Amino acid sequence: MNIDELIDAVIDREGGYADHPADRGGATRWGITMAVAREHGWRGDMRHFLRSAAVTIYRRLYWDRPGLDAVAARAPLVAAELFDTGVNMGTATAVLFLQRVLNALNRGATDYADLTLDGRIGAATLAALDAFLRTRRAIGESVLLKAIEALQGARYLTLAERRPANEAFLYGWLANRVGEPA
Questions:
Q1: Which is nearest to 132 in space by CA: 63, 78, 60, 64?
Q2: pLDDT on residue 104
Q3: Which domain of life is it from (predicted)?
Q4: Model's pTM, two decimal places?
């Protein structure tokens, strides 16, 4: 999937307007919170937030800013998962998942050096991803994807355990987010 298809899938999954009392994000439309919409110039009622504005925000904040195009050139399924995870958990968290997995799979730093866990896609993260994919070949991307999804699922469970109000969202997160990057 390309970024346009990924954005469409997220918007379809997020749906239209919502203002669930247990959601700390408050009013949302197309999955964009009021706070994020306001940061990008929206001053109206969230019920009328434009889909085109949501598309722009998704592309800018969750694809371009973290540099997922560089990941997509190497591992498109991983990039799609990082995009979706970043939308729901923040891009730094999504990238930290990738960095943690790459560190854990480098066989004691013999395949490539451990990464600094900084939540940013930079030259070192891309070099480690390249080395991992070169070493692990065809199945490498699917293994990375499984490990990232495992961390994502564990984080959702922890969120529900720490804040019982999040139990209202846990089933949906697991059903619609883990293993469903697009």
A1: 78
A2: 97
A3: Bacteria
A4: 0.89
